[in-house]
Design goal:
heterodimer, A: 27% strand, globular, B: mainly alpha
Chain lengths: 798, 317
């Protein structure tokens, strides 16, 4: 077969790919845009009908041959379609790329159809959604076999076979079951792959006969039927033998193949095995394979506008045209206040020289780093953050000197200075807890402040940064946990070969009776200390990050006196017993501190909580309170169920209550309602494309106005406390309206009015903008609602 | 009890409002006993009577304001808007950051008084009216608007005492009865058991079928106000069915269906238990709420009578 030749082949027709193809077309270069799906811009195509698409970040200018502005899905797709025709973009849909080989100037691209295409350059813009897994049986591409469900209400009175026992399959089945006959096919014996809530709903639906299920069942083939009552014959192998189900429609939800493996098969290298890591790219988006360029979400830029800009730029780079990156103006502005820096490249260079931590980064990564960060020029004496603030950004010192004042466990103060080239703030970043010290500029300073998310992203994608950070931060952890006055020499000795260990919730750090292996500095997360009493495990204490455990056995030279378990995802630094003993022998001040803690511990053991309180701690830990910083609890022995907490919450927050009083578990009259716990490491922050979720200085985790309504946080929150809601004009009732009983009450907000408006994520912000603090607590007439942080557990419970 | 359970309404802030109102009442009684002011026909017309009357009126207005506070605890709209505006401007925000933290702590006690504090004060001040107003009357009663206001006030306070009692005691009972279930959960389970019982009964004699159907269709959960408050249904068909099943079980035992009968009996038994729990839930919630339907309207009636009382005394002048 003759293979075609192009200068540039673009793989993937998302925003990045489209933009690149349009730019290539505008230049009149021979190009080809390949799309595996039957539609261009497949991901956006499969957004729900009428879904509003946002254009974040607002500050970033768009530079592309295609236009893009916030609007609804249909409008955006329509505009793009017109523009593609106008630019005469050469594209092919339904063309799945299976392999890319060769090198710059002579790439060979193999398609699933067996065709082969030659290209000088390849632009990979396939995103991270992955390829939808198909049924892989005869009939998988029949017209009524679909792999998406955009609008469950579009189908009624049909017999529908849903394949896939994961969340997507179960959710689709539940949504369709109301007005259709639904048969859910699961390859496995049980529905163990879906969320508990989905499982419960499914079981209820099955019990009521709304959904039929087949388990341990494999799809064999799908046949088209002659026009008649049913369109398809779905044939499957069940434990009882072959079964044919005549149906109108087959919906298969089998997940997606993540693209990483495919990309690696092209020869592209990823820096580490972490699932969030992105391939290392040059400043011009070129991967380690020369001539192979990567843009968009796969390159770590998940927003539409970023991807479109990169699509434009990558074509210019391939053609060898010098373009100023779209973010140049933004970066210039960031450095504008620094007296000695006159251009962006100078600033970036200074950052590279004066922050050894960032040395392993490429210029592209540094630019990205700077784009998220802010440059702060501070006069001498200015406070950067205060001890006990909840801020979690990371600071690099470019110029000047910073003094950190910390306070040890026993209240003794210590001050140490940091010169240019150092960094600070990593403890708050890693522990998710309050700042352990106050940072003050002791000379005029130039600092770069990087938000938590960008820093974490950097740590995941650049292994070198993580290692360099650890070298310094381990010592700091030991110093702040153990003894702030410990000399550098002893610290070096202690952390030499110290291991950093990670534990999942419930994992055991050590067991009662074990031989003592060392001292555990808790760097992140929290642990519970428990002991077997009369055959029952009784929780004695809850210990949070910034403290240590394991000193009992070390001091007394006996086996472990208690079991220590992770109460939330925990990271510890384990110091070897021998080294600790040596250092203790040499340093009387540290010895005294550890001893006094030991005695305190011995004393508090005498007042160990009753088994009832211990059960209560276990219950709360089971509810995830262990990873919380501030959680709403309700004493059900006082709660008159008036729901004033919800009503007033709605009243304070534009008519939508952020808490659900009735949902949630109860133990021994203590109820954990569905409401935000302001986790140390908020799950909701994990995957927020516009970085709209932040933690304020006082600890409140809140969502800012630039939310794009993608719903990721809602999915990521394990406690179900985030909802998507329409922001409405909500007017509080005036005194007269309350007296006369007129005006709409918060709980009566009209659903119908808000049907098609864009939704944004809504969650508890602990009423950070309201004088007096959280209204849920203030609005409780009987004082049943209270907020608590787990550090105060033991005080409360004993 | 652990510290998670904060102070009750009565003990709030170490009996702050108990102490305050006790003092108030003690002062009033002492004044009543010691000072014998010369004045008009009735005691209320003396200067001490006026003082007590005005004080009581102010307290009543304060008590009624509780109803408004309860619905507006999230703060007045104007002030919040203002606050948002200040935080929006970045410079100001930076400047205010530190101060805000300070003020936030400070204001908690003033403008941000919790509703619990309000309610605690409401309870004690409300109770103190019995003493203050009785003194104000000088124990002169008659068939007139003045005494009407007095009687209405006593009714309001009595209903309030009932409310206080249920507020303090019922929440615990609700949790004990419901554990983690909601009423909807129970109703769903009951419906499922009904379905199950009906299917089981299909092949059984008509007498059993009729019993089960009756239990399904005529068991009321909720129902009239009286049924809600009592938590019972007279001759509850479900309970009846459970009792009857024992006899019928013996009667039809010769048939070869003892297992189905047993299943049916256990389904009905489980349903009876759930129905009882659902009714208890409704009863407790109804009793928690019902008194408010007296307390508030009577309060408004009292306000009307009080206005009439105050207007009318101007004519004595």
């Amino acid at each position: 077969m003759m293979s075609e030749n192009f200068k540039i082949v673009i793989v993937g027709s998302g925003p990045g790919g489209l933009s690149a193809a349009a730019r290539a077309a505008e230049h009149g270069i021979s190009h080809l845009l390949l799309e595996a799906a039957p539609h261009l811009a497949n991901t956006i195509y499969h957004f729900q009908r009428g879904k509003p698409v946002m254009a974040e970040p607002a500050v970033l200018p768009l530079r592309s041959s295609m236009s893009f502005a916030a609007g609804i899905r249909e409008h955006i797709l329509e505009t793009w379609r017109e523009e593609l025709t106008r630019h005469q973009v050469n594209y092919r849909v339904g063309a799945t790329v299976t392999n890319i080989s060769g090198q710059s100037g002579a790439f060979q691209i193999k398609l699933a159809s067996g065709e082969s295409i030659n290209a000088e350059f390849v632009v990979l813009a396939i995103g991270v959604q992955g390829n939808i897994r198909k049924l892989a049986v005869p009939g998988e591409d029949l017209p009524m076999v679909q792999y998406h469900l955009d609008d469950p209400d579009a189908f009624s009175n049909e017999t529908i076979v849903v394949v896939g026992g994961g969340d997507a399959g179960v959710e689709n089945s539940l949504a369709l079951a109301g007005q259709n006959r639904v048969i859910l096919i699961n390859r496995q014996e049980e529905f163990s792959n879906c969320k508990e809530a989905n499982y419960d709903q499914l079981m209820a639906a099955v019990a009521q006969g709304k959904i039929e299920t087949r388990v341990s069942t494999l799809t064999e083939r799908i046949d088209a039927l002659a026009p008649g009552n049913f369109n398809l014959a779905y044939v499957a192998q069940t434990p009882e033998g072959h079964e044919q189900i005549d149906c109108h429609r087959v919906i298969a939800r089998l997940g997606a193949k993540p693209p990483r493996q495919l990309v690696e098969s092209f020869g592209v290298r990823f820096p580490n095995s972490d699932s969030t890591s992105v391939p290392q790219l040059s400043e011009q988006y070129e991967s380690n394979v020369p001539g192979l360029y990567i843009v968009g979400a796969l390159a770590g830029y998940p927003l539409i506008k970023q991807a479109m800009n990169q699509g434009y730029e990558v074509i210019e780079y391939i053609l060898g045209n010098p373009v100023e990156p779209a973010d140049e103006a933004l970066l210039r502005e960031k450095f504008a206040d620094v007296p000695d820096i006159h251009s962006v490249s100078e600033g970036i260079a200074l950052l590279r020289v004066n922050q050894p931590l960032l040395a392993p980064l490429t210029t592209l990564q540094l630019r990205e780093f700077m784009l998220d960060s802010t440059v702060r020029v501070l006069p001498r004496g200015e406070v950067i953050f205060n001890r006990n603030d909840y801020s979690n950004s990371f600071f690099s010192i470019l110029e000047g000197r910073v003094a950190i004042q910390t306070e040890g466990q026993n209240g003794e103060e210590a001050v140490f200075g940091l010169e240019a080239g150092n960094f600070f703030g990593e403890m708050g970043l890693l522990s998710g807890r309050r700042r352990s010290g106050t940072a003050v500029a002791s000379l005029d300073c130039v600092l770069v402040e990087t938000p938590r998310r960008s820093m974490l992203k950097l740590l995941y994608s650049a292994a070198g940064v993580q290692r360099k950070l650890d070298e310094v931060s381990l010592k700091r952890v030991v110093r702040s946990c153990l003894d702030t006055s410990l000399p550098e020499r002893e610290l070096d000795y202690l952390v030499h070969e110290a291991q950093s260990k990670r534990y999942a919730v419930g994992d055991v750090l050590f067991n009662e009776g074990d031989k003592a292996d060392g001292l555990y500095m808790i760097r992140r997360g929290s642990v519970t200390v428990s002991r077997m009493v009369a055959g029952k495990e009784v929780v004695l204490a809850y210990i949070s990050a910034g403290n240590y455990v394991g000193e009992m056995a070390l001091v007394s030279n006996k086996p472990r006196s208690a079991t220590v378990r992770a109460a939330s995802p925990t990271e510890v630094v384990l110091l070897e017993a021998v080294r600790v003993a040596d250092v203790l022998g040499r340093n009387t001040s540290m010895r005294r501190k550890v001893d006094s803690r030991y005695l305190k511990q011995v004393r508090s053991d005498e007042y160990a909580p009753s088994s009832e309180s211990s059960e209560l701690i276990n219950f709360l830990m089971g509810q995830g309170v262990g990873e919380a910083t501030d959680v709403l609890l309700i004493d059900y022995a006082r709660c008159i169920r008036c729901n004033n907490c919800e009503t007033s919450c709605a009243d304070a927050h534009d008519g939508t209550s952020r808490l659900d009083r009735e949902a949630g578990s109860t133990y021994a009259q203590i109820h954990v309602p569905t409401s935000c716990r302001h986790c140390e490491h908020p799950h909701c922050m994990k995957d927020c494309p516009p970085d709209a979720i932040h933690r304020s200085v006082n600890g409140e985790v809140f969502i800012s106005d630039n939310c794009i309504g993608c719903g990721n946080c809602q999915t990521n929150c394990p406690y179900g406390v985030i909802q998507m809601a329409v922001k409405t004009e909500y007017k509080k009732r005036s005194v007269w309206q309350v007296i006369l009983g007129t005006g709409k009450q918060a709980s009566e907000a009209d659903e119908a009015e808000t049907g098609n408006l864009p939704k944004k994520a809504v969650k508890c912000d602990m009423c950070k903008d309201i004088i007096g603090g959280p209204v849920c607590v203030r609005a409780c007439p009987t004082g049943a609602a209270f907020r608590m942080s787990p550090e105060n557990f033991m005080e409360y419970i004993k | 009890m652990n510290k998670m359970q904060g102070a009750t309404l009565l003990k709030y802030k170490n009996y702050r409002y108990f102490k305050a109102t006790s003092l108030l009442m003690a002062l009033a009684i002492t004044a009543y006993v010691l000072i014998r002011p010369a004045g008009g026909e009735s005691y209320g017309g003396t200067w001490l009577g006026y003082v007590l009357g005005i004080l009581s009126t102010l307290i009543m207005v304060f008590l009624m304001w509780y109803g408004i506070t309860k619905r507006r605890i999230s703060g007045a709209p104007e002030r919040r808007q203002q606050r948002i505006r200040t935080t929006r401007s970045d410079e100001m925000a930076a400047q205010l950051k530190f101060e805000r933290r300070k003020t936030r702590r400070k204001t908690r006690g003033l403008s941000g008084a919790t509703l619990q504090e309000w309610l605690s004060a409401h309870v004690y001040l409300g109770a103190s009216l019995i003493v203050l107003v009785s003194l104000h009357t000088g124990f002169h009663f008659g068939m007139n608007v003045h005494t009407l206001a007095y009687v209405l006030m006593l009714l309001v306070i009595t209903s309030g005492f009932y409310g206080l009692n249920v507020y303090l005691n019922y929440p615990r009972l609700i949790t004990l009865n419901m554990a983690e279930d909601t009423l909807d959960d129970l109703l769903l389970k009951i419906a499922e058991l009904d379905e199950l019982a009906c299917t089981r009964a299909l092949g059984l004699p008509d007498e059993v079928n009729a019993l089960v159907l009756k239990a399904r269709h005529e068991t009321r959960i909720g129902g009239t106000l009286f049924q809600q408050l009592s938590g019972e249904q007279r001759d509850c068909p479900t309970r009846h069915a459970v009792q009857q099943m024992l006899h019928l079980g013996e009667k039809y035992n010769q048939d070869d269906q003892p297992k189905i009968m047993r299943d049916l009996y256990s389904a009905l038994l489980r349903k009876e238990k759930l129905v009882l729990r659902a009714r208890t839930e409704i009863m407790l919630k109804a009793r928690l709420e019902c008194w408010l339907y007296l307390h508030a309207p009577l309060g408004i009636a009292l306000l009307a009578a009080l206005t009439a009382h105050i207007v009318s005394i101007f004519f004595y002048w």
